[in-house]
Amino acid sequence: MLLVDDEPARVDLRGALGREPDIEVVGEADADADVPALVCAGKPDVVMLDVRLRAADGTSATHHLLRTVPDPPRVLVLTAFGNDRDVYDALQAGAAGFLLKRAGPAEVVHAVRTVAAGEAVLFPAAVRELVAVRGRCRQGGLGAAALTPREGEVLRWMARGLSDAEVARELAVGVEEAQAHVAAVIAKLGARGRVQAVIAAYESGFIDPRRPLD
Predict the structure, then answer these.
(1) How far apart, in whole angstroms, are the C-alpha atoms of residue 17 and residue 3?
(2) Distance (Å, rounded) from C-alpha 104 to C-alpha 47?
(3) Torsion angle, alpha carbons of 66, 68, 69, 72, to 10
(4) Rg (Cα) of the chain, in Å, rounded?
(5) Is the CB of residue 32 less than 8 Å from the CB of residue 54?
(6) What is the pTM of this model?
(7) 40, CA 20 to 30 Å: which among 48, 70, 138, 197?
(8) Alpha helices (H) along the chain
(9) Pick among 1.20.1260.10, 3.40.50.720, 1.10.10.60, 1.10.10.10: CATH of 137-203
(10) Closest CA to 189 of 151, 138, 136
């Protein structure tokens, strides 16, 4: 993985990740870094970057990585504030999740493993608050997405932050079937991943971000 943040934060992150045998830090840089160049050189599976880079904000860096770099890495953004507008924009751009800079070592390691496995680091209450405060909520459902009743159920479980395995248990189906449902939801919504699908559900009014999830 690649770490892009200021020096004090990088030291803590490197310390948390460096003790894990299944995680290799292939590069690190400060907030002035040319992130795409570092990704092309190190080919990390995951990039953890400060959402407020100086050379280019985290949203622009995320957008550029996911749309121009061949076989792009998964992006996990770091923020000091959970309701940061830049975090919301980075999630919309395709980031697989975000992590508060005050997160403990175990939480950092879990987040990296989660996004590396293709899942999302999704804090349901935090994402709901981001959309309610920063988003553009519209009523009228998901329109042309035309989700089936089962897919709508899956989307609600996704909004609760459930993994594929947890969705499978809730639906009493195999993990592969749950993964197929999740993939169908993402494709129908034209999203880049789970996080963007959940944001679309909130912004469309399919799920009301002002109401707690059951």
Answers:
(1) 10
(2) 18
(3) 20
(4) 17
(5) yes
(6) 0.81
(7) 197
(8) 7-18, 35-42, 58-68, 85-93, 105-116, 124-134, 149-159, 164-171, 175-188, 194-203
(9) 1.10.10.10
(10) 151
